[in-house]
Design a protein that fits this description.
Elements: E1 3-8, H1 17-30, E2 35-40, H2 52-69, E3 77-80, H3 86-95, H4 100-104, H5 107-116, H6 123-137, E4 143-146, H7 151-168, E5 176-179, H8 213-221, H9 239-252, H10 256-262, H11 268-295, H12 297-326
Parallel strand pairs: 1-2, 2-3, 4-5
The structure holds adenosine-5'-triphosphate (ATP) and magnesium ion.
Length: about 325
């Protein structure tokens, strides 16, 4: 069975509906046909500085949402990145076979460093894609489900795997990107031409998985639409309505065309009220399960420790092999 690896950063107090529709929910389905490794990317989340006071809580909350959304820690391997030191061990080796120019071509680094300014840009942000390559290669993953924005990083991962293999002998599986094209992209409800994002300047259009149903419903009812009256899918002319239809469709499985027919002649308000209900029904069980897990942090921590242990069985084998091929003196 193919092995799949993926992760999300614990950079907020809750994941959002885009993370759910675009990542988590797909992961849940992948568990049927793949051997899955899912991690909370806490090491990645410190490239722009972090708050030690919220770090551990955010990490737990993120892991709890994975499980609450349907990641089964028995069937899959669920781990916290910083608890499996092989990620960073491999990352250093990969840093040393990555060209400086090659890393400097990464468009995400260029965008983010421009935004942050040179004095706020860390070397960690620069080598972020190399740590990402290590996350994947350390588990010998066959497939990596990623959004379009990660395509270039995955290409780097493949190049590093091939380079290492040709210099030091067959060591790594060269992973394929599984670009989730038909998985819906969710847009910000208040600004429906921008994608829903944890780092949006305002949270008015952000549906967080763990927010109270009332507050999410209110945001849906105030979602920005156009001044027309027709419920119709048209990303250009009607980005707001199209976004509501996409969310509705992806949470219920009802095709967009069917929804459009159902709301023919009805006002936008009807669609919004019904969508708010759909979102509430979807998130309610996730919130309850996440809360149960967070009510017993010691048990959650034990579960995560077991996940890290399971992960290390694979990861340590890879690092031992890599170190040996590099010619390092064997450890005691
Ligand atoms: P940030 O703003 O910090 O980049 P983010 O909200 O974009 O945060 P990421 O951690 O970058 O979240 O992404 C985690 C996963 O969620 C990725 O697989 C990404 O493709 C998916 N994802 C993020 N935002 C959306 C969205 N609006 N619609 C669909 N999928 C999304
Ligand atoms: Mg992002």
């Amino acid at each position: 069975t193919p092995r799949v690896v993926s992760g999300v950063q614990p950079s907020a107090d809750s994941l959002h509906l885009g993370n759910y529709v675009g990542a988590l929910r797909n992961w849940v389905d992948m568990q049927d046909d793949n051997e899955c490794v899912f991690f909370v990317a806490d090491l990645h989340s410190i490239t722009a500085g972090q708050n030690p006071a919220t770090m551990s809580e955010r990490t737990r909350v993120t892991a709890a949402q994975y499980i609450a959304a349907g990641i089964d820690p028995e069937r899959s391997t669920l781990l916290i990145q910083s608890q499996v030191p092989e990620h960073t061990q491999l990352s250093w080796v990969l840093n040393c076979i990555t060209g400086y120019g090659e890393a400097a071509r990464m468009t995400q680094f260029k965008d983010k460093s421009l935004k942050q300014g040179a004095e706020n840009t860390t070397v960690g942000l620069f080598t972020y894609p190399v740590l990402m390559a290590a996350d994947i290669l350390v588990y010998q993953a066959n497939q990596v489900p990623v959004g379009e924005d990660q395509r270039q990083h995955l290409e780097l991962t493949r190049n590093l795997a091939q380079r290492f293999n040709s210099r030091f002998g067959e060591t790594f599986v060269v992973p394929d990107a599984k670009i989730l094209e038909n998985s819906a992209k969710v847009y910000d409800l208040a600004n429906p031409t921008a994608k829903m994002s944890k780092s949006a300047p305002s949270d008015a259009g952000l549906i967080r998985l763990l927010d109270p149903a009332k507050s999410n419903a209110k945001k849906i009812k105030s979602a920005v639409t156009d001044d027309g009256t027709e419920v119709r899918f048209d990303r250009q002319a009607k980005p707001g309505i199209s976004n509501l239809l996409t969310i509705y469709s992806s949470l219920t499985g009802t095709p967009v065309d069917t929804l459009v027919a159902e709301y023919e002649g009805k006002m936008y308000g009807h669609l919004k009220v019904d969508l708010a209900e759909v979102v509430t029904q979807t998130l309610d069980p996730i919130q309850k399960r996440a809360q149960e897990l967070l009510d017993d942090p010691a048990e959650l921590d034990r579960l995560l420790a077991r996940g890290a242990h399971k992960a290390r069985e694979i990861a340590a084998r890879t690092v031992t092999d890599v170190y040996e091929r590099m010619g390092f003196l064997p450890g005691a």
